[in-house]
Fold this protein.
Amino acid sequence: MKNIKWVLGICFIIFFNVIFYLKFYPIKVVSIDYTVEDKKIYAKVTFPSVHLKGQCSYKDEIQPIVNNTCQFEVLNEEGTFQVETLVNKKEFILNPNQNEVLDIFLEEDKAYMVVGESKKIEFSTEEIGNPSLPVVIKSENEEVLKVEDDVIKALKSGSTKVVINVGNVTKTMDVIVTDLLTKPILAVKPYLPCNRYNDAENKLIDEFLQYRINKAGYQTRGAVVATLRFLTLEFPYQIHYFWENGRLHNNTGGPAADGEGRFYHQGLYLSESKFNDLNQSKIRYGPAIWGCPLMNWEDDPTYGFHAGVKAPNGLDCSGFVTWVLFNAGFDVKDVGAGDTPSVSDDLGDLGVHQPITMELLKSNKIKPGDIIAADGHVALVGGVKDGYIYVAESLNYGLRMNTYSYEKLLNTSFLTYVINMDNVYQKEGVYTNYWE
């Protein structure tokens, strides 16, 4: 009997101590550690190394205590969470105060630049909190490209990577630099020689053109402006004038001829690899790339053309305009510059003819990319600045960006009206009134 009482006494003491411990011994937290995973903040609470059973609750989230820890997602602000056991409950303070850069978003992951060109690296960051971290931008090849602050400058032809680092996040951008093109220059340039470029160079130049178009916005007015400026200002040679032998979309009654005085295809017509783009059934006396001799069948001594005599292939006025529109994303068909009453698909039929007057010139309604023309000649407005209209046009001397004062334009017989192209382009895209 004594043994039973002794055992019961010991059990009572143990039970009393357990109840006392559970009831009155405070819940303690050893540490609260914060981590950022998948752009979310988590708090990990660690308790003393006793076998603690219970749960942690934060806002609407409840997590069990497992192996003396509990973990839950938290907001990046000061707050509280509760710990609850069988008999105890206590509130603790949270203050994550996390300041991290989570990601870097580049405006572009591949850029094309010409030697001497500078541009700012455009990027944004996704952050938690308010990190104040330095931005480090480096070029992997400083002979090709150097970095000053957040501006990169192209030094010589080649390719390299630009590395952008903020905190623990790093992103890279590929940069291609070439000397096959120039920064936009308003100048009389030498004529394009025959076979000046090989296939690889033609391909690279086409990539640069497509880059300009995409930056401006494909199928926008900006893309048209970028394309016409590319061929007249950035391309280092002047394309010859060539009186077409025919058109693919032909309403003149004559034969159609692909690539013969016209190149109604993507990119520049600079290497013989482009022959693969042509409709072979419509080649009669070619093919010949821009700058190379092609048989001419027009007879116009004023323009220096004689039937049966070869001349360097190039673009006539409508050939240039339709090429620009096609590359910018507007397939107006391979049509001419006339205002022929019997057909309704010449370039002159794309909109209302606004006669060129001083009132129109001063109205600020003429925009780059608009058609400027007369019956038999068509061109594109390349820029507008300080009382001058810059016109990209192919005349007997070749393709140029010509400068017209208001007075000169009013006295020019082969530019008499403007077509506002808003209804054709519909979207503005990215462009400036002038290229500088």
